[in-house]
Design a protein that fits this description.
38% of the residues lie in helices and 16% in strands. It has helices at residues 14-24, 45-54, 60-69, 74-84, 98-110, 113-124, 153-157, 182-189, 201-209, 214-220, 243-254, 270-278, 324-334, and strands at 6-12, 32-38, 129-132, 139-144, 149-151, 169-175, 193-196, 224-228, 260-264, 295-299. The longest helix is centred in the first third of the chain and has 13 residues, at 98-110. It is globular.
Length: 335
């Protein structure tokens, strides 16, 4: 298929990155060399509690990327189930995820998040690499058009009740000014294809890009850039955004327009739309015009089943997602 293995880097975090990696890992290593460059801004749920108590980098997005790339043997599937298990009882453990606790324990044992990730990668026999965007602790900060400011990924992701979630984010940054890790910089600059999305624009995607040196690595890379558009808007982050607005914001922070754009064109059920409307979230309008600089692909990328949230999970989750196999096939067609 290819003269050499294609180096593919997925930048993001959470379920979007998990979905992309889950599909791409089905292709052998002599076809795709996979790396996940993952945000360290997460501050909510089990991850946030562990971050506050232990002072380590947040582990939730690491865990999701590891599970996505884990071995598909019977043993691997069992380990994946273990890493996904969330406790739903117990005053101290309720809401915690076993995989998060395991990664924190490994960091305690080995003395660094990097070594903990290496051990967990070997244990899960992952197909690829999971790389923190930075090795430094940081806080994500957003300033809105009404001049209000929210600090912390969890508050930006799920704004407090008194915050007007229709306000546009005018500026996003991290404090302190953490720098991109050498491994992340190397993966990005040496990539053949960089994939951004799907995922919450500010808290999963741009949370990586605002780390010092990331924009420069992306603009310096000779890799093609693929953006997978979101299915739904996000109240508090991208309320009222069309696809053009997503692209414009992405270009501001990355310094590049995508070479490829992947868009779902499968309609949603009325039942799903009703549930999202109750949360003041809506399908992202496809107002993309054909452009010479960007090659656009529209196809059915929608997963068939509604996502069920696990017991004990206190965070708001998406109800519909992209299908890993459909995404992977579309990405391979692009490659």
């Amino acid at each position: 298929m290819f003269k050499k293995s294609q180096k593919v880097v997925v930048i993001g975090g959470g379920t979007g990155t998990y979905t992309v990696l889950s599909g791409l890992k089905k292709y052998p290593a002599d076809v795709l060399e996979l790396s996940a460059v993952v945000t360290v801004a997460d501050s909510g749920g089990s991850t946030g509690r562990l971050r506050d108590e232990f002072g380590y980098l947040p582990v939730g997005d690491f865990r999701m990327a590891l599970i996505a790339l884990a071995d598909d043997s019977d043993v691997g599937l069992g380990l994946r189930s273990l890493f996904l298990h969330r406790f739903d009882k117990g005053s101290g453990l309720k809401g915690h995820n076993f995989g998060n606790l395991f990664l924190v324990a490994l960091t305690d044992i080995f003395g660094s998040e990097e070594k903990a990730l290496e051990y967990a990668s070997q244990m899960l026999r992952i197909r690829g690499n999971v790389i923190p965007i930075t090795n430094e602790e940081l806080t994500l900060v957003a300033e809105y058009e009404n001049k209000t400011t929210l600090r912390g990924e969890t508050h930006i992701d799920e704004p407090p009740q008194e915050h007007d979630g229709t306000q546009k984010i005018m500026r996003l940054w991290v404090e302190p000014g953490a720098r991109i890790s050498p491994k992340a910089e190397k993966a990005i600059t040496e990539a053949d294809l960089i994939i951004i999305g799907p995922g919450d624009l500010y808290t999963s995607i741009l949370a990586n890009i605002v780390v010092v040196g990331t924009k420069e690595a992306i603009t310096a890379s000779s890799a093609k850039l693929l953006y997978i558009t979101n299915l739904m808007s996000k109240y508090g982050q991208t309320h009222g955004f069309t696809m053009q607005k997503y692209l414009a914001e992405l270009a501001v922070y990355t310094g590049r327009n995508p070479d490829y754009l992947l868009i779902n064109n499968e309609p949603f059920s009325r039942e799903i739309l009703g549930k999202y409307e109750a949360q003041r979230e809506f399908p992202v309008e496809d107002d993309i015009m054909e452009e010479d600089k960007t090659t656009i692909f529209r196809t059915n990328l929608l997963a068939d089943e509604e996502i069920k949230k696990s017991t004990g999970d206190t965070l708001r989750r998406s109800l519909i997602r992209h299908d890993p196999r459909k995404l992977a096939r579309a990405i391979m067609d692009i490659l």
